[in-house]
Protein 1
Amino acid sequence: MSDSFHRMWADLAPVGRHPGSGGYRRYAWTGADTDCRAWFRAQAEARGLLCETDRNGNQWAWLGDRTAGDAVVTGSHLDSVPDGGAFDGPLGVVSSFAALDELRRRGARFTRPLAVANFGDEEGARFGLACVGSRLAAGQLTRQAAFALRDADGVSLPQAMEAAGHDPEAIGPDPERLAGIGAFVELHVEQGRALDLTGDAVGVASAIWPHGRWRFDFRGEANHAGTTRLADRRDPMLTYAETVLAARREAELAGAVATFGKVAVEPNGVNAIPSLVRGWLDSRAPDQAALDTVLAAVEQAARERAERDGTDVAVVRESFTPVVEFEHALRDEIGRILGGSVPVLGTGAGHDAGILSASVPTAMLFVRNPTGVSHSPAEYAAEDDCVAGVRALADVLEGLACG
Ligand SMILES: [Zn+2]
């Protein structure tokens, strides 16, 4: 089992790796993405699987009759964030093929069709929207909206697809395909340290936290930084600063996370009091009530401070994804297959599994990440833990597809 995993891992490792940063730049519909897709096809063909690319650019490698229905599907994605790590995505795809190898070694007899999937453009690094392949398939992204997506160079998604040899004309909802799937299981490196803290190599996902992005516009009055008396200022930077601290405080109180990671200042001069500070808040919490509490408290703190500073605050919600609860029946079944002692944990990160869960019974397995670092070249999982992940996935697939 570890042999096939290591061979694939070594084979895929150089694809799209930037020599300077050591991180991965596998963006949708670029040369590196094409190379990842060729790698996937080669793995499928080497195993005698039927490899196809669906209308939305997702790859599928089938064992058994793909039209029979009630298929068990596993997999993840191969694209990356800018200078991403080696594990986010590829660990799930490589483990899926390795788990199939392990099941064949065990002499498993499949009673349901099985597929390994590589979902396209999961990270959204190029076009700014995550999970494009699964969103399109699930009908959560319209064809029209997908056609309007552009990268930083002004290249549209359909142009990029076409340049990479994929016909964009037929993108859109794919309900027949999803209706043929009885269960989807995605293995993923953990993007946090929960498993490290419990001392487990593998865990099962309970839910993806509700999360959203809010834009805070703090407006004041631009003026001279040298000649304007402190008492006469209407400085929105002060209101912003207090709001950042409030976000941290309120997130801690609610067991949530909240981050101001992007800020824009006008006029953005060293010697000018700003007229506008625009800050973007990303917040995620275990449940909707906690997230609502954080947002309400941060907004209240901003308004109270604005009164003191003589500034104005406007808050706009730019995006929101409600909680995704993975199907309890499938989760319980996986718990039984893995022996019942496997930890169940929530996550603040989005995944294709979260998108598909609206259409298909879906579950996730997490593999321990000792530092919790993700979306960075430092992202890491130990070899033994990766092998434990493959074994767990093989057990799950055997329990589901060979029953
Ligand atoms: Zn991922």
Protein 2
Amino acid sequence: MRNVTITALVALALLAGVAMGMPTRSYDSCMAVTQLSSSYNYRLYWNQLNSSSTSISIAMEAQVGGWVGFGVGGEPTMIDIDTQVGMMAGGGVVVDGYSDGPNQPPMDTNNDNTNVAVKYENGILTAEFDRVLNTGQVKDNVWIAGSNSIVAAVNDGTPPEVDSEYSRHDEAVRFPVDFTTTSSCPPPPPPASPPPPSNSPVTTNSPTVSGSASAVPMMIPAVLAAIAAIVVAMA
Ligand SMILES: *[C@@H]1O[C@H](CO)[C@@H](O)[C@H](O)[C@H]1NC(C)=O
């Protein structure tokens, strides 16, 4: 009976996550970066690492129009930070860079980010990617299964048109994150309120309608999983 409860709770948690418009993939850790202004609602997600991990799955998310960024290592003077900057340029990209001072970090020759997914929905920019912890390249830092000194940064300006050109961060903070730990975020703020009701018939093209409709197909597997778990345990 205990297993049923746990499985059903996990399925419901997944379901709740999808319904709240979180990243496309699921992550076992989420950190609300409260060191940045709260209006950005910056959240960093990752899948927990262990001593055998060789890569990591990351999502960075903020209420910004320009870009959402994340860097590993380097100096407070913005030297030698291994930067990942997510933006909608070209349909969505996570730029792999390496800073050499208080300027836009030059792009790496090799972009080592894989499984990249970037979306801008309801005013929230979400950038997801996978990354090998040690690429062996000079213009990358080694990310460790342990405590990393990381930088979270945002730009709330206009979206960059090309991936190589983006303006300076509006805010950046540095703090340690141990990727072998898990943490969880408080529930995100509710989405922007829908337009006031009118007498005209509801159109299927309104942003609120299509936004919630897109979540429904993704919710179905979680519901089925919850039902299946209960049925199996009762058999
Ligand atoms: C260690 O983490 C990797 C992902 O980084 C995962 O695939 C693997 O199952 C984990 N191993 C253990 C023993 O938890």
